[in-house]
Design brief:
Elements: E1 37-41, E2 44-49, E3 52-55, H1 59-103
Pfam family, one: Chibby
InterPro entries: Chibby_fam (IPR028118)
Protein name: Protein chibby homolog 1
């Protein structure tokens, strides 16, 4: 009787077959159908766009709002970059001014 005899052998696990939607047709929904979500509450109409709900009456209003938000973000980034450049230039100016003051001969 060998010491290392296999007393238990596991059976191979069969591959899974598509058990979901058995007997049901395959759903062919496009993700684009869910990009334009609108909600009507009484006389108010809301559209979900770019992660927020916006009050609008037309799809063009939402598109204009998204375009303006993107433009606003781009202008904010440009403004921040300009402010950073101004700060760097002021630091350089201050450094050069102190160097010039140190190089001037001191008069008594």
């Amino acid at each position: 009787m060998p010491l290392f005899n296999k007393k238990f052998e596991s059976k191979p696990i069969p591959a899974r077959v598509n058990r979901c939607n058995i007997g049901f047709p395959i759903v062919n929904e496009d993700i684009e159908d869910f990009r334009n979500i609108s909600l009507s509450l009484g006389n108010k109409k809301l559209r979900f766009a770019d992660g927020i709900w916006m009050h609008s009456t037309h799809k063009a209003d939402v598109d204009d709002m998204l375009r303006l938000n993107k433009k606003f973000r781009a202008l904010e980034e440009e403004n921040n970059m300009c402010n950073l450049k101004i700060e760097v230039m002021l630091d350089l100016l201050a450094e050069h001014a102190t160097e010039l003051n140190d190089l001037k001969p001191k008069e008594k």
